[in-house]
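Dig into what follows:
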Amino acid sequence: MTMTHKERFLRTMRFQPVDHVPDEEFGYWGETLTAWQAQGLPSHVNSNETADEYFGFAPKVYTPINIGMIPAFEYQVLEEDDRHRTIIDEGGVKCVVHKDGASSIPKHLKFPIETRQDWEDFRKRIDPDTPGRYPADWDEVRDQLNGSDMPVGVWAGSLFGWIRNWMGFENVSYMCADDPGLIEEIMEHLTRFFLAVLNKAVREVKCDFAMMWEDMAFNKGPIISPRLFEKLMVPRYKRITDFLKAHGCDIILVDCDGNINELVHLWLDAGVNCMFPLEVRGGSDPWPIREKYGNRVLLAGGVDKTQLIAGKDAIKKEIKRLEKLVAMGGFIPHVDHRCPPDVTYENYLYYLDLKRDTFGIPRPAPYEERAAQSPA
């Protein structure tokens, strides 16, 4: 029986039989698509959105609510030379970036929150009552989402990753020791903020999943200790996840790069049940996580991007090692972060064909044929 994208996603994440596992990917660095255009990718495929459409991946839709800063900081160019610009970005961070738009980590110079007074000023931008959190045509959008045959998601924010962005890696690490009360105060504000903003969305839209973002680990483990994570974050996550689950949203993903092994059990205790994107070389191989936690944990990602760089034999081995894991359910396989430009276009197409053939995913019709059949 052929399923809708929504049915297939939900049944996969509930360890139920499906016609095939969802056909999803995480995306690409900008330089990747540019490099692939020189190798045969059409020039109009120049963003993650156009690439998803071109390659024919299963779409998701999100409730279009704004849980970010309102207003964002004004983007400013402070100075520049032949190669670099010193800017203040929309997050309020003063940094040095490449003028050619290269996706390297900026050189950070100053962050918007360095003191308690900075937070008092900053928190005005994280106000649930600020106009603009919901679109003006919400009623129409709500009805469209409730009638969708695609998985419907809601963004549920961040308790630590955002603070790291606002303070910087070193500053937030010191602050956890020097003024943990401030960290806790910000997390409490964020928890109340998310609950207030999400309230209308999850009451009026049947959300299939929620997405959180943290990026609070590197290849040796988490930025903060599991003890501090358990004290500060688990109870607040629980308030958010209990609220979501009370309204039928029981699949809750967390996007965290790096080695998450010391945090998985704490996320599970907190009601966050899907780990993503499972960076294999970062220390988060999906197999040991499944073996340790069984069906308590859901998984997405886990295809080692370095094996796509290594070539076709390596790709075959990588897909083969995940075959039984896919068959168990509760796992959507895709590249374990945005695909880097070291992966050739030829290797990527080979990977997609092999993944689809191995896991019984129908190959989509050529893009031109699908585009011709789409409504104008």
